[in-house]
Write a structure and sequence with these properties.
- With 327 residues, the protein is mainly alpha-helical.
- The chain has 2 domains: 2-181 and 292-322, 3-Layer(aba) Sandwich (Rossmann fold), CATH 3.40.50.620; 199-288, Tyrosyl-Transfer RNA Synthetase.
- Helix content is 54%, strand content 8%.
- It is built from 13 helices and 5 strands.
- It has a 3-stranded parallel sheet.
- Helix 8 links the parallel strand 4 (140-143) and strand 5.
Length: 327
């Protein structure tokens, strides 16, 4: 079973990302033939800083390796290193109805959010995603609920291509990713934790012990002193209880009981200690990999070679069916 997934290189991986997609990547590599790409081409639909973008792309690979992605069990590569993604995207563009792209919910949402940069890439994003998937004749694609519409388009394009040019693609199945408990911002606990916000609003998996302690100490709590789960009235402490529960595997009522009458300070101190302990292996591995940049680039190069071997072979078949003149 071939599985394909991708992660954009922008921003640092935080504890919410780890409990959601991060842990699932590690799981997928034991379930099938995982192709995991750092999706730098997709990230270009939002303007990136060209002076730091390459470093961010490499950093995302470092984070993935630090959390347990194993290059011996999966194919880890950078999307732009495999030129066949862009080539297939153009071929698929020629059979994609414009109306299909204009009705995409994500395009409508992002167009409102990025009014200053409504670019053709934003509209065409789902076609490149379809190319990513079909290029490897992928069987299963793990996606969140917000990406299911894009996967439907991928299946539509696979069917249309097969109808026009003969059986080429199988239709990839959707693997809906498990939604982890929603972890909120440390500074604005009514808002979801986001890597694009103030760094003090999230715990990055690469934060050192002192940084974690400082961020938890600054985390917004609520009026009163009761360590009680009540998201409506006490969103701050409820968020911290959720984080503690997820990282300690203890039920929230048990935590409420343990800290009853003790106030916020002892609870925050215990949470910081817990997170330092749980994230220390990731931080240590990340720092070690930062000192071994050549090794990491070698992993990405090997991943690119495997990905390109399969991609080039499949694209050659596709180009022949379309009728393009062989080189």
């Amino acid at each position: 079973m071939r599985i394909l997934s991708g992660i954009q290189p922008t921003g640092k991986m935080h504890i919410g990302n780890l409990l959601g997609a991060g842990n699932q990547y590690v799981d997928y590599q034991n379930k099938g033939d995982l192709f995991l790409m750092v999706a730098d081409l997709h990230a270009l639909t939002v303007l990136q800083n060209p002076k730091t973008f390459a470093e961010e792309t490499l950093n995302k690979a470092l984070e993935l390796l630090a959390i347990g992605v194993d290059p011996a069990k999966c194919t880890l590569f950078v999307q732009s290193h495999v030129k066949e993604h862009s080539e297939l995207a153009w071929i698929l563009n020629t059979i994609t109805p414009l109306g299909e792209l204009e009705r995409m919910t994500q395009y409508k949402d992002k167009s409102k959010k990025h009014r200053e940069n409504i670019n053709a890439g934003l509209l065409d994003y789902p076609v490149l995603m379809a190319a990513d998937i079909l290029l490897y004749k992928t069987d299963v694609v793990p996606v969140g609920q917000d990406q299911t519409q894009h996967l439907e388009l991928t299946r539509t394009l696979a069917k249309k291509f097969n109808s026009l040019y003969g059986q080429t693609f199988s239709e990839p199945k959707t693997m809906l990713v498990k939604e982890g408990a929603k972890i909120m911002s440390l500074l604005e606990p009514k808002k979801k934790m986001s890597k694009s916000d103030n760094p003090d609003s999230y715990i990055a998996i690469t934060d050192d012990a002192e940084t974690i302690k400082r961020k938890i100490a600054k985390a917004v709590t609520d009026t009163g002193k009761d360590v009680k789960f009540d998201p409506a009235k006490k969103p701050g402490i409820s968020n911290l209880l959720t984080i503690h529960s997820l990282f300690s595997n203890q039920k929230i009522p048990a935590l409420e009981k343990r800290y009853k009458g003790k106030g916020y300070a002892p609870f925050k101190k215990a949470l910081a200690t817990l997170l330092v302990e749980k994230l220390e292996p990731f931080h240590r591995k990340y720092e070690e990999l930062k000192r071994r940049e050549v090794y990491v680039k070698t992993i990405l190069s090997q991943g690119k070679e495997r990905a390109r071997t399969i991609a080039a072979s499949n694209l050659e078949e596709i180009k022949e069916k379309v009728g393009l003149l062989p080189e």
